[in-house]
Specification:
Layout lengths: L1 H25 L10 H8 L6 H12 L5 H13 L3 H8 L6 H22 L6 H19 L1 H7 L1
Helix pairs in contact: 3-4, 4-7, 5-7, 6-7
């Protein structure tokens, strides 16, 4: 049974990584290609925590924008890295402690955000980072539940 679970996890992890690569780098074209990198960073980045999150939450309550936009942004960023909270500790046993997990996720997410900015396939948004970390932590909490651990042992 353990071998089957490992094979299923391995195959699903490959599909998950491919989906992440598509969503983060291949799904959208390079915007503002005519700007210098510094100008691009200036116009496309958000370093103010909760700026876009609060805008989207406000829009949900007051109907000031199409509901698809805030829901897809908030839920999408939250759910996008939830599986990572399960896959990382499954494949890398040292990441079973929450402090090691959070440190690993911070490094992974900052690296991905940096690559997005440099490649101009996205922007650095601290709110996306916050939602991604929160989603990964939810996944990690799911991983740590007795039910999941009982299934795996």
């Amino acid at each position: 049974m353990k071998k089957i679970i490992k094979v299923v996890f391995s195959i699903s992890f490959i599909f998950y990584i491919l989906a992440l690569v598509f969503l983060m780098f291949l799904g959208r074209g390079g915007v503002f290609a005519n700007l210098s990198l510094l100008e691009y960073i200036r116009v496309s980045s958000n370093i103010v925590p909760f700026k876009t999150i609060s805008t989207y939450v406000q829009a949900i309550f007051d109907g000031s924008m199409n509901m698809d936009i805030p829901i897809k942004n908030l839920a999408g960023n939250l759910l996008m890295f939830l599986p990572m909270g399960i896959y990382l500790p499954f494949f890398i046993k040292r990441i079973s402690k929450v402090s090691v997990f959070i440190t690993s996720m911070i490094a992974i997410l900052f690296s991905l955000e940096f690559i997005q900015v440099i490649s101009r396939r996205g922007s650095f948004d601290i709110d996306d980072f916050i939602l991604n970390i929160l989603g990964a932590l939810i996944g990690f909490c799911i991983w740590r539940t007795r039910i999941v651990q009982k299934i795996l042992n």
